[in-house]
Write a structure and sequence with these properties.
The protein folds into 3 domains: about 120 residues, Rossmann fold, CATH 3.40.50.620; about 140 residues, Serine Threonine Protein Phosphatase 5, Tetratricopeptide repeat (Alpha Horseshoe), CATH 1.25.40.80; about 170 residues, DNA Cyclobutane Dipyrimidine Photolyase, subunit A, domain 3 (Orthogonal Bundle), CATH 1.10.579. The chain is globular, with a radius of gyration of 24 Å. The chain is mainly α. The N and C termini lie far apart (about 65 Å). It binds flavin-adenine dinucleotide (FAD), ligand DLZ and iron/sulfur cluster. Ligand DLZ binds next to helix 2 and helix 3.
Length: about 500
């Protein structure tokens, strides 16, 4: 019998992948390919490229150890065609076959490219998630609003995670209310687990250094897990040392502490080295053993079986044009500070600086600092999307786009977020220590030295008044705006306009 090709993409590094499960080890050939199309569709952070390539090389080695034939293309191979479809065609010739078994990619671009191939490509469902896409669509169908909270409850029921006799453990579905504490700098707080690069990773690091030196981001030191075994150790480390405080400090931001109590497990979940259910079961077990409080365990599990599954459902439900949505018609160019240019805003400098160094920022930094600023300043959401897809090691379109286009930039018109995530400097001041070391004053509401978030916030609301004043969750803020005297309002708007003009002119703001 002729061999079939079994495609394994860089973010499909799971032993139980549907394409592998449908294939025959004795007959078929696994195709894995490092290609310039994938390393270049956005200027990925060098750490992200290194992580994907090293994890791919380690995964190929483990497949070979397990008895698979693997046709692996390295980026520098002379015959490398530069694309996934090109490599499939090349291997099809080499193995004299026209059949491909694939697991559906996490991006419309590649799904469409595989669909259009002159080979017979079977795209199987990606079953490394808790909800199937049909299940999500079934849940969404006929609902006026697609609120994550209700989807999450269904996922709790489905998995039985933290459920007792059909009811949520502790009597409440959601302990978010307890998860809003600011954090203090703590020298004793653990950091996510770090791994020393082995020979394979070192080789990849040299390759990335040579080829992607101009991309935004610092390559070394590189400490990510690149195998399933290491990712499991990272999970264990998080549960033992950081989970306990995860709930309390979930929204906290601290200068120079990129991780606080966050897990840094998204890169491994998204590559397929860890499965969402095994991670949640491990967290549930810690809670059952009394090693983690209920608000930490529930909060963590909600992020994975709630948010992660929900945004994936939205991405595939909304279709390939989702990333082009721009309901607020924002068109400002992404300012240079996002690519490392100087800024006087301490919160932006810290969030972007750690993004450059670590390829990581936690949820509240992404949402309420860099995302909030982009939305308030009216940046083109397509450029914001490209930035997030480039700079984070965990960024793949199925998860990044709904978070950016939907949750953060409200460019989908409110499918994900019932109201835009915007705030003045007050929120950042409450949840961080940034403002103490800032060139602007968070207390100052107008004038050149005032916190830009303070004035841009009102300017955004004023600009989009027609759209948002009828939103029942936003009536209060418009009333507050209206109560300010006219002179004050004019001063606020003038300060905001002057700030944007300075930024557009390329001045350091
Ligand atoms: P933790 O805080 O430890 O959370 C645990 C896990 O929950 C994460 O590992 C992740 O798998 C999951 N999770 C939490 N929130 C979300 C969410 N909103 N959507 C999906 N999964 C979630 N996450 C990505 O995985 N890739 C992205 O490209 C991405 N882009 C984002 C862009 C913006 C503007 C925002 C606001 C959020 C984005 N997120 C993204 C969600 C979230 O910020 C990251 O999942 C999280 O910061 C990863 O770090 P962690 O593993 O330390 O997370
Ligand atoms: C992100 C990424 C990078 C940087 N490089 C590769 C690669 O060389 N080969 C590959 O198969 N996958 C890579 N990936 C992951 C893909 O971009 C990812 O599979 C798609 O975006 C779908 O989620
Ligand atoms: Fe950010 Fe404003 Fe605080 Fe400065 S004062 S750190 S710009 S919120």
């Amino acid at each position: 019998m002729t061999a079939r090709l079994v495609l394994v993409l860089g973010d499909q590094l799971s032993e139980g992948l549907s394409a592998l499960a449908a294939a025959d080890k004795a007959r078929d050939v696994v195709v894995m390919a490092e290609v310039t199309d994938e390393t270049g569709y956005v200027p990925h952070h060098p750490k992200k490229i290194a992580l994907v390539l090293s994890a791919m090389r380690h995964f190929a080695a483990s497949l070979r150890d397990d008895g698979w034939t693997v046709a692996y293309s390295q980026l520098n191979d002379g015959k490398n065609s530069g694309s996934i479809t090109g490599e499939l065609l090349r291997r099809a010739q080499e193995y004299d076959t026209s059949e491909v078994i694939a697991t559906r990619p996490g991006e419309w671009r590649l799904i469409e490219a595989l669909d259009e191939m002159p080979l017979t490509v079977r795209q199987l469902a990606d079953d490394r998630f808790i909800a199937t896409l049909d299940e999500f669509d079934g849940w969404a169908k006929g609902r006026k609003e697609l609120r994550m909270e209700y989807f999450y409850r269904d996922m709790r029921r489905k998995t039985g995670l933290m459920m007792e006799d059909g009811a949520p453990a502790g009597g409440k579905w959601n302990y978010d209310h307890d998860n809003r504490k600011p954090a203090e700098a703590d020298m004793l707080r653990s950091a996510p687990m770090q791994f020393t690069p082995d020979e394979i990773t070192e080789e990849v690091l040299s390759l990335v250094e040579r080829r992607f030196d101009n991309n935004f981001g610092t390559l070394r030191p590189f400490h990510f897990a690149v195998t399933r075994g290491q990712a499991l150790r990272a999970l264990d480390h998080f549960v033992k040392h950081l989970l306990e405080g995860f709930g309390d400090y979930q929204d906290a931001m601290l200068t120079g502490d990129p991780f606080v109590n966050h897990s840094l497990l998204s890169p491994y979940l998204n590559l397929g080295l860890l499965g969402p259910l095994e991670v949640c079961r491990r967290v549930e077990q810690a809670w059952k053993e009394g090693a983690a409080p209920i608000n930490a365990a529930e909060g963590y599990i909600r992020q994975i079986i709630g948010w992660r599954e929900y945004v994936r459902g939205i991405y595939f439900r909304e279709g390939p044009d989702y990333t082009a949505r721009n309901i607020l018609r924002h068109d400002r160019k992404l300012p240079w500070m996002y690519w490392g240019g100087e800024t006087k805003m301490a919160c932006m400098a810290d969030a972007i600086g750690q993004t450059r160094d670590e390829g990581y920022a936690h949820h509240i930094q992404r949402l309420m600092v860099t995302g909030n600023f982009a939305l308030l300043a009216g940046i083109d959401p397509a450029q914001v999307h490209e930035w997030y897809l480039s700079v984070y090691v965990d960024a793949y379109e199925w998860v990044e786009a709904p978070n950016v286009i939907g949750m953060s930039q409200w460019a989908d018109g409110g499918i994900i977020a019932s109201k835009p995530y915007v705030s003045s400097g007050n929120y950042i001041n409450k949840m961080s220590d940034y403002c103490k070391g800032c060139g602007y004053s968070v207390k100052q509401k107008t004038g050149a030295g005032s916190c830009p978030f303070n004035t841009l916030y009102w300017q955004f609301l004023d600009r989009h008044r027609q759209r948002f004043e009828g939103n029942h969750r936003m009536g209060m803020v418009f009333r507050t705006w209206d109560k300010m005297d006219a002179e004050r309002r004019a001063e606020v708007l003038e300060t905001a306009e002057a700030f944007l003009a300075r930024m557009d002119a390329g001045q350091v703001v």
